[in-house]
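During data preparation, a discrete fold description was generated, as reproduced here:
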Amino acid sequence: MQSRERVRAAIAHRVPDRIPFDLGGSRMTGIHVRAYAGLREALGLPPVEIRIGDLTQQLAEVDADVMDRLASDVRFIGPRPATGYRREMVEEGGFISFRDEWGARRQMPTDGGLYFDTFGAPLGGEVDAAAIDAYPWPDPDDPGRYVGMADAARRVVEEEGRAVLVGSICGGLSEGLFKMRGFEDGYMDLAAEPARARRVMEKILEIKLAYWDRALRELGDMVDVIGEADDLGGQDRPLFSPATYRALVKPLQRELFSFIRARTSAKVFFHSCGAIRELVPDLIEIGVDILNPVQVSAAGMDGAELKREFGRDLVFWGGGVDTQRVLGSGTPDEVRADVRRRIADLREGGGSVFAAVHNIQPNVPAANLVAMWETWREEAAYG
């Protein structure tokens, strides 16, 4: 099987020749630039200038030679910034910072910093509906966003034979609420000012709908997977009550996924970290086809149990190794044992794509990455 055929089979709950492999196929299955340098060396590949594909998370753009060596089956395609956006990096007070398209500030320590954290919520404090509507939201129709997307997707499909995962214009609806309002004001809105929380999320939804309308028209049937996300879970429970999720967030997500599904046969990939077991039936109900990252170390997120309960309806993309407790701090033998367990949990009947639980972090030794990949290769074949 070619990669694209293999992924399409797996996400349609058919059994492919082997479990598909993903490194760098989304902004949630990537690798930090520091870990990537070590991986290239461990694979015996020549040094290159490492390109950053995601500035905030400091993810490397995975090069073709790495994808070929690892037999990675998926490539990410995403939008560009708007034509008029100019990122200005500023160094002050031990940080380097910039303002993103949404008006939020992001900063990273200049000494040993690993990621950019968001601060300075642009809609924090007392704001009314008029102020929310008048805010200079990003323009999803800016033609600069779409330059090169169709050509890039065509190269992936026709020249590489890989599946295409297309990323969204921004993070999730509740994530966007917290970015624009700040965590304190955002949580207070969810509890005491739900109309304000809803209005902020509605504005984000409007931007998403306009983006997907144009992106899907331009990309057509070259799209295999639609990448959406909204972190809903913490380590042992959802980040806010299921009742609040169902009242405020779920209806907007339903509208988003219905809009997408009416315009493409591609499968909807939804990323949420954490303990979201009690929300999984809701996600299935509103049109999620694929769940990522399958955070096996969070409460209620055992892969074998999830497969048993929801494997008929959901594809599990991730959950291939416990990144929280094993991949970064375990030995290569412990990594191998964990990968064997996780593959056994999710492989039956297709419906799984192998990836680590979320992005590979900078503390992960190259030897552990090689152990992960070698064990996947040993265990991946069906039949």
Q: What stands out?
A: The first strand starts at residue 52 and ends at 54. The first helix runs from residue 3 to 11.
